[in-house]
Amino acid sequence: MSLLPHDQDRVTVDEAVRYTQGGDAQAVLLDVREQREWDAGHAPGAVFAPLSALAAGAALPSAAQARPLVVICRSGQRSQQAAALLTARGAQVVDVKGGMRAWSAAGYPVVDEHGNSGSIA
Asked: Does domain 10-105 sit in CATH 3.40.250.10?
């Protein structure tokens, strides 16, 4: 049985939270923005893997290997690129519609590199 929806390649932020947050998280929230953006603010518990590194052939961080992935960026464009790239590598992937902008607008927490309240860069 698949942990992520077979009939869609994109999910809402509410669905992303349901799949990736909490002790029984089914998937990993993978943030593919660049370092400056990650440092300014990201979802708690997300795993960082910049699209530029993935596109250059970098492996996924160990916390994201062999797990279903919910990919997020700032607005949803880079995450679509990352999802296509990771799907081609054999990963089970969906991306988040609206990205971190939608995440923040929905009232979900954003933390900076120190764990304090963050912002979307």
From this structure: yes
